[in-house]
Amino acid sequence: MKKTLKTFLIIILLLPFLLNMISLGSSPTTTIDYKMNVVSYIPSGAIAIVGNQDFNDTAEAENWPGNGTVESPYIISGLNVSSLSRRQISIHNTTVYYQIRDCYIEKQSGTALTPRVGIYLYNTSNGYIENNTINNEAMDYGISMYFSNDTIIKNNRIRNDLAGTRDGGVLISQNSSSNNILNNIILDTSRGIDIYVSCQENEIYNNTISRAEYGIYLSDYSNQNVLKNNNITDCTLDGILVETSCFRTKILENTLFNITGSGIHLSDHSNETEVKYNTIEDCDSYGIRIESDVNDTTVSFNNFINSNGTLGAQALNDGLNSYFEFNYWADHTSPDTEPEDGFVDIPYTLNGSASNNTDEYPLTGKFVHILTRSFIYSPKGGESLKGTVTISWRPSGDFFSHPVTYLVEYSNDGGNSWSEIISSISDTTCSWDTTSVTDGNNYLIRVTSSCDGGLTRTYISVFTVNNVADTSDGTSTSSNGKSSPGWTLIPFLLSICIFVHRKKLKRDKE
C-alpha cells in the first residue's frame, strides 16, 4: 500500500515539481529601509473623536474632506501629530467611514501616562489606516484597536524603541474581528503584531517585522485568523506564537529567519492549526514546536533549514494527531534511490513524544511556489476561424492554492502587439467574435495565467481568421471547441492522496 501510494504521489506531485525546481536564493536580508520625512506635514495637536456627530463637527471645523459615507469617507491626512497626550489620534464609538493616511505621528516626551498609543480605535468600524509613519519611541503601541471591526491597516511604518512589558507595533484586542493588517513595516517592538482576547477572522499578511521579541503573538480564544506571507526576522523569543485556545489558525507562506526561540510555537490547546508553505531558517531552537496540549495540527510543504543545530531534529512534536508530510528538511536530503523520485527513502524523525512522529515523505529539495502553465484546447493551432468562436484552455495549478485568473489576448501581427479579448476571469472558456477583426493568417491567441502570489505563465496558439463570404451559423471551423473534461488540478489530486494516506495511518494505529 505504501509503495502504491508513493508511486501515485510521484506522478501527481513530483514531475512538475522537479521540472520547475528553482532556487530560493540567499537567506533573507534583515536590512530594512525605514525613512521618515516630516518636512511637508502640517503640525497638529492630539485628535480625539467620540461618536459620529463629533466626527462630522470636527471634520467641518478642520476642513477635512468627506461626509462619512463609503463613497466619501472623512479623510485625516498630511498631519504631523505630536503632543503630551497619551493618545495622539483616538476615535471612539463611530460607524462612519474614515481614513487616516499620510501622517507622521509621535509622542512628545515628558509624561508617564499609559498606555501611550499613536492611533487608538475603540468600538469603531469602517476605518482605513494607510501610509502613516509612527515613531513611537515613547509609546506602548503604534496602533491599537479594541472592539473594532472591518478596518484596514496598510502600508504603515512603525518603530518602537521602548522596552515595555507588552509594547508593540499593532494591537488587535477585545473582540476585534474581520480586520486586514497588511504591508506594514514594524521594527524594534516587544510584539510586532499582538492579537488577543476573542479576535476572530483577522487577516495578517505581507508584513515585515524585525527585531521583536515575538513577531506575531496570537492568544486568548482568537479563532480562524490567517497569518500569511509575513517576513519575520531577528526575534529574541519566537517568530510566531499561538497559545491559549486559538482554534483553526492558518499559518501560510511566511518567511521566518534568525529566531532565537522557535520559528513557530503552538501551545495551550491551540488546535486545528494549518502550517503550510513556510520557510523557517536559522532558529536557535526548533523550526516548529508543538506542545503536548495541542491537537490536530497539519504541517506540510514547508522548508526547514538549519534550525536546532545541536538538539537533533528541527521540529518538536508532542501534540495529539499532528501530521507532518511533504516537508523539506535541510539536514535530511538523502538517500533517494528506491526509486529516485524526489522523496528521501527514509522518513524524517521528529523530536517529541507524539505517536506519529515522522514525516513519511520528506522532500529532497526545497518546496517552492510554482504556477503550472495553461494549455489552449481550442483553437489548438492551425485552424481557420470565422464567426463567434469559443476559446478554451486547461486551468493552471497553483502549488500554494492561490486563486488564479486569466487574461486572453489576440495578436494580428505575429506577436509584435496584443489586444485584449477578456481579462481577470476565473473561468477557462470565453467567446470571441472574429468578425470584429480583419481577416489574416498571422493571428495568435495568448492565455496568461496569474495568481495572487505574483506568478504568471503564458501559452500561445497560432491560427487564421477568414470571414470572407461567411454563410455559417457563427460557429468556429475548429473541431476542438469544447473544453476537455479530463483534466483535474494537481492540488485537487494531491488532496485526495493525502486523505488516503491519513486514513491508512489511522487504520494502522487502530
Q: Would you give an account of this structure?
A:
The protein is mainly beta and 510 residues long. The chain folds into three domains: 176 residues, 3 Solenoid (Pectate Lyase C-like); 132 residues, no CATH class; 117 residues, Immunoglobulins (Immunoglobulin-like, Sandwich). Helix content is 10%, strand content 39%. It is built from three helices and 42 strands. A hairpin with an 8-residue loop joins strand 33 and strand 34. Helix 1 runs antiparallel to helix 3. The chain is flat, with a radius of gyration of 27 Å. The N terminus is likely disordered.
Q: Could you give a short description of this structure?
A:
With 510 residues, the protein is mainly beta.
List the helices and strands and how they pair.
Elements: H1 2-19, E1 42-44, E2 47-50, H2 52-62, E3 74-77, E4 79-83, E5 87-94, E6 98-101, E7 104-107, E8 117-124, E9 127-130, E10 133-135, E11 141-146, E12 152-154, E13 157-159, E14 168-173, E15 180-182, E16 185-196, E17 203-205, E18 208-219, E19 226-228, E20 231-235, E21 240-242, E22 250-252, E23 255-259, E24 264-266, E25 274-276, E26 279-283, E27 288-290, E28 298-300, E29 303-305, E30 315-317, E31 323-325, E32 328-329, E33 348-349, E34 358-359, E35 375-378, E36 384-385, E37 388-394, E38 404-411, E39 419-425, E40 429-433, E41 440-451, E42 456-465, H3 490-509
Helix pairs in contact: 1-3
Q: Total domains, how many?
A: 3
**Helix coverage percent:** under 10%
Determine the number of helices (DSSP H or I, runs of at least 4 residues): 3
Could you tell me the radius of gyration in angstroms? Answer: 27 Å
Largest sheet: 21 strands, parallel
**CATH level-1 class of the largest domain:** Mainly Beta
